[in-house]
Amino acid sequence: MATWRLTTPLTEAEIRQLQAGDLVFLDGRVVGVRDATLIRIFDQGIEPPIDLSGAAVLHTAPNVRREGDRYVPLSVGTTTSARMDRFTWGLLERYGVRAIIGKGGLYLPESLQAFKQFGGCYLAIVGGAAAWQTLQTEAIEAVYWEDLMPEALWVFRVRDLGPLFVAIDSHGRSLYAEVGAEARRRLGQILGGG
Amino acid sequence: MIVVGPEFYEAVERVAAQAYVKALIDVPADVRGALEAARRRETHPIGSQVLELVALNIRTADEHQILVCQDTGTPVYWAFIGSGLAVDGARLEAAIRRGVEAATRDHSLRSSICHPITRQNPQTNTGYRVPVVHFEFAAGADYLDLVMLPKGSGSENQSFLKMLSPADGVAGIKRFILESVLEAGPKGCPPYIVGVGLGGSADLCMVLAKRALLRPIGSHNPDPAVAALEVELLEDVNRLGIGPQGLGGAVTALAVHVEHAYTHISQNPVAVNIQCWRGLRAAARVYPDGRTELLSQWQPGG
Fold first, then answer.
1. Closest CA to B236 of B299, B296, B168, B179
2. Is residue B51 part of a domain?
3. Residue in A71, A80, A173 to test binding to B, most B beta-carbons within 10 Å
4. Closest CA to B69 of B13, B7, B150, B1
5. Same domain, yes or no, for B228 and B256?
6. Of A82, A128, A190, the CB nearest to B276
7. A177 touches chain B (CB under 8 A)
8. pLDDT per residue over B45-85, tens digit each?
9. Which of A64, A123, A125, B74 has the fewest CB atoms within 10 Å distance of its CB?
10. How near does any CA of chain A get to the CA of B121, in Å?
11. What is the C-alpha to C-alpha distance for residues A60 and A55, in angstroms, rounded to an integer?
12. Residue B47 is assigned to a structural domain of this protein
């Protein structure tokens, strides 16, 4: 299990070297999106307001305080990725996103295929650990689509964001699929009286 | 019977706000204890690291007095009204609502509540029929206990109900609960507190599954048959190997709490309501003269 330190924007070569189980610490910019943001992009066909090529996107909607014309992060955490599973393919194929930071994993075969085909990965953060994550969020650099508040499109500047676990890599491995298959096998044993 | 006055409702509003904020910042003592025991027990390389980070996060929230998790949840309250009080229920509910709105405004809490069709967010953490307020009654008490549960959505989305048949028996109940935990898998932030409702009608069964989350870890259902099922289910859930955050490990759940009710002769309802590792809740007591105290732990009937 290797530990990597990466800075955004991310390149395909950087992502391809990551193996499931590795740890990543991230510097640079992270783009916050979630349900309403992705519905706007993919279901309503509205182009995102910023270039997402090489981006790390985070499934989030933070607690913020408005000070003048800017927002101060009060609690930046991570939401359950599975609700946004069907947008993964588009984020990678159409917009060139390289990393999705989330919690709880992605499961659609086309999401795993997208990571493999386009060179992307899923980085698992510890869900619920927003206090720690907030300290690693230096600033909110920009906010778009404020009408969706708190589900706006956020640009966070992060330092040492992590540790992030490489839970789905670009080589077809998913820790969620592996743990899930083993749990299903054990459930069979338990119910079979084993 | 004491007829309560304005000072009582003002106190309810105040503690409804305090309990909301406290529940979001301060992980309850029993949950901390269970997480610490889990950290010592866990041997999986990733699971151990996850539990170290959970401990680090709790310390960070304590030190900086910031939210443990970003999700401000669905505000759910349980009001246990002492039989010694004459309370105006509508006024009580309105006071709780104002408390949620005050906490949201004064602490810049994210508003997590919206209309189910238009998705319009009023930015108050309240709306039609929200906060969710349950009422119960405590015989002999001359105070109100208010228990607050800001239910995170990652775990609330992992809710399950099945109207089994009597012939499915306890084996069917166990199967459904274990399959529900497997389906929740990594999505609701394990290690979990698994809330289970048994019996009742469909609506009561689901309420009981959530009511089970109010109980401190380490407590058991007073009915020995149900308590035995809690012990058995916890062992089985932890044999699944889902582990902290679903990345593998020995600790999938910190506790399984089962609350039950009698049911119809032709029914065998079972409900599961998952709680994330934060186990977040806070409780307060309000006296008729408006005195209040935050309770470090709320016990059923206590």
1. B179
2. no
3. A80
4. B150
5. yes
6. A128
7. no
8. 999 999 999 999 999 999 999 999 999 999 999 999 999 99
9. B74
10. 8
11. 15
12. no
For residues B145 and B18, state if they share a domain: yes
* Model ipTM value: 0.96
A residues 121-160 near B, CB within 8 Å?
124, 126-132, 134-135, 149-150
To the nearest whole Å, the CA of A190 is away from the closest chain B CA by: 7
Cα angle value B9/B10/B11 (rounded, 5°): 90
Instruction: Please give the backbone phi and psi of residue B145, each rounded to the nearest 5 degrees, phi first.
Output: -105, 130
Each residue of B259-281: pLDDT tens digit? Answer: 999 999 999 999 999 999 999 99
Q: Residue for token digits 């820790």? A: A175
Interface of B with A in 104-143 (CB under 8 A): 108-112, 119, 121, 123
Q: Which residues of A115-124 are buried (b: 16+ CB within 10 A; e: fewer)?
A: bbebbbbbbb
Return d(Cα B159, Cα A164) in angstroms, integer.
28
Q: Which domain, by its residues, includes B165?
A: 154-275
Query: Which of A3, A106, A132 to probe by mutation at the B interface, max B CB count within 10 Å?
Result: A132
Residue A171 identity: H
Contacts of B119 (CB under 8 A, 6+ apart): A36
The identity of residue B94, as a single letter, is A
The full length of chain A comes to: 194
Contact B226, B256 (CB under 8 A): no
